[in-house]
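Could you help me review a protein record that somebody else here produced? This is what I was given.
***
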Amino acid sequence: MSDTAPTHTGRQIPDRLQSPLSRALKSWEALLLVVAVAIFIVNSFASPYFLDPWSLSDATFNFTEKAMIAFAMALLIISGEIDLSVGAIIALASTTIGLAMHAGAGMPVLVITGLATGLACGAFNGLLVARFALPSIVVTIGTMSLFRGISYIVLGDGAFTGYPSGLAWFGQGYVFWVITVELVIFALLAIIFGVLLHRTNFGRTVYAIGNNVTAARFSGIKVERVKFILFLLTGLTSGIAAICLTSRLGSTRPSIAAGFELEVVTIVVLGGISILGGSGSIPGVVIAAFVMGLVTFGLGLLNVPGIVMSIIMGVLLIGVIALPRLWAMTRRR
C-alpha cells in the first residue's frame, strides 16, 4: 500500500462562495461603470464645453429614447427572442400622431394614439411569434419594412409639422433645472423594469424561458403568453419613445428613428444581456445607456460625422458579442 496521497485531476470545487461585495466588484456592471467614468474624464479633457450642466443635460437626449425601448428589449432577449422593428414602430406611431393632429385631436388623444399604435404593433409581432411559432428575427425584419412602408405611403416625401405646444413638454420640457422630462421617464422605466425582472415571478419566468424553454413549459409556465406580453411591452415602450422623439423634433418624417434598432440592441448587449438569452440585468442596461450616450455625445463634440458614429456602433456591437466568446475559447486551450 502506497503512502502517497491520491491525486485529484477533476474540476476544482471551491469550499466557500464569494462574498456579495466580491461578486459585485468582479461583475460586468462594475467594469461598465469604470468604462463610463473613463469616457467621462476623456470627454471633459476633449472639449471645454462638456462639463457645462446644460451640455450634460443635452447629452442625455443621445440615449434616453433608445434606452426606454432597451429595457423591454432586454427582457425579450433574455427570453430568447428579439424585436428588430422598434425603429419602424416609432415611425408608424409618429405618423399616426400626425394624422390624429390633422384630424383635430387634442394633446391627450395624440398621446393615446402613439401608445395605442405601439401596442398594436407589439401585439401583431407577438401574435405571429407566440401564436404561430414563427422566428422572431424573421417576423420583425418583415414588420420593420411593413411599418415603415406604411409611413412612407402616408407621408411620401412630406412631413407632419405644427404640433401643439402641449406635446412639446415630453421631448423639450424640464422637470427641475437641467433635469429633462425624458430623463425622468427613463428613470421611472428603469425602476419599473428592474422590479419586474428582478423582484417578481414574471421576471423569474422570463429567465426560465430563456435558459430552457422546454423545461419551462413542463414546469407549467405559459411560454406563449409570456412572450406575447414581452412583445406588447416592447411595442408600448416604442410608442412612448415615439411620443418623446416626435415632441423633441417637432415634426414627423417617414425616416424618423432610422437605425434605432441597432443602437437599442447594442445598449442591451453592452449591458451584459446574453444575446443567446437566459442572463443579464437591468442595472447593466442602465449603465450601458450612459456609456453609449457619453460616447456619441463626445464624438459629436469632436465633430465626428454621423456615418463614422454608425461604424463605431457596429464595431462596438460585434466586439461585445465576440470578445466573451474569444476569451472563453482562449481559456479552454
